[in-house]
Fold this sequence. Notes:
This protein is of the alpha+beta class. The chain has two domains: 43-145, Rieske [2Fe-2S] iron-sulphur domain (Rieske Iron-sulfur Protein, 3-layer Sandwich), CATH 2.102.10.10; 159-428, Naphthalene 1,2-dioxygenase Alpha Subunit, Chain A, domain 1. The protein contains 15 helices and 24 strands. The longest helix has 16 residues, at 366-381. It is globular, with a radius of gyration of 23 Å. The model is unreliable at 231-248 (pLDDT under 50). The protein binds FE2/S2 (inorganic) cluster (FES) and fe (ii) ion (FE2).
Amino acid sequence: MATYNKDALRALIKSDRVHRDYYLNPEIFELEMERIFKRSWLCIGHESQVPEPFDFVTTTLAGQPVIMSRDREGEMHVMFNRCTHRGAQICTRPSGNATRFECPYHGWTFHADGAHAGAPYPDRYAPGFIKEGNFDLAKPRMAIYRGFVFANLSEDGPDLEEFLGPMLGHIDHMVDRAPDSEVEACAGMFRYRFDANWKIQLENLNDLYHPMFTHASTTSEDGTQFRRQGAEGDEAGKVKLLKENASLNMQWEDQLIAGHRYGHTYMQSFPVDKGNSGPVYERYKAAMEERYGDRAEEAMTGKYHNSIFFPQWSIQYLTQHIRIMNPISVDCTENIIIPLKLKGAPEEMWKAALLSNNNSHSPAGMVMADDMEAWTRCQDGMQAQGHDWIIFARALGEEKIDNKGSFEALGTSEANARHQHKAWLHYMCGEA
Ligand code: FES
Ligand SMILES: [Fe+2]
């Protein structure tokens, strides 16, 4: 029932608006899985989630179950969580340590590197039917960059470094803020779903038009939420952003919003990201100077607030987390929020980052609950007839676009979403 040929896809995207079917139509969702998610480098997580030999975590890759594991020698593997006998998932635990995976159905076993270890009572198979290698777990293409683990369901297409291009520097910026030049995912994760299309969240992360309204009760000192959060006692100054959100509305029009080829976008850091003070900060500064010398100040100076790696994950620098955004269906998305510890930085900073993540990005976190309410309202409201178009006309034409596919815009412009819409069309028409 391929009713969406290239002309029909192009008809959904106009320079200043997109058709509501972009978010609502299950056929579009199926095509997105084929043409975007099965052809992009997707973030699985961070290798520090499996620090020891035989550690593993299970997750999904464009809806397909996968295991990220470390073998006896410490090598990383990403493999499909699918028994090569009759297809059962071999592991359903979210994480753990296992020298072997045993399928619960008929007991076939697999090593931590995915190699088939054996099938019970093999003599009833024809001689030579089960031989070394022919029933190993299948694996997608995998790449690791500075500890972040990626996989790609397509055998061809750009390698990770070409796909991320200038966005590699955004990963470096996160990792280089650690005095040991390493980050660590050692506090677990938040994992939850909301009832809205994946693209609504992606359009929102660098949307400066919404915070003063969506987050009014969280960010305003008169708001009911702000009084409950205890921001004043936070020496590392993380959650005070919530307060500053309210007072900086007009300054936001000077914030840089920009992006690169393949649909990636980012937002410049807020003033609150840039400076800090106090005894904890001084210890951090000393550790950075010892590690980086003259380059310490540059590494510590915030460049970005939020970087979105199209189509599926982001780094938020202020609260120090990555967010993996897995589409579940046309109207449901899973978020995995993984806080990152800056190795070598004072412990107090890590505690403040975790507190800040709890406050803002847990399922009931103040910022997140506001946003999820707005996104699900969009998904529900778009069901109404009478207006078929979703409007992205703000500051249209003011953005600077170069011939390499990058753009720059300011403040509450909706240029970031327009950039994603163009990238979406390229992928969907096979032109990315
Ligand atoms: S399905 Fe796994 S052993 Fe049969
Ligand atoms: Fe928001």
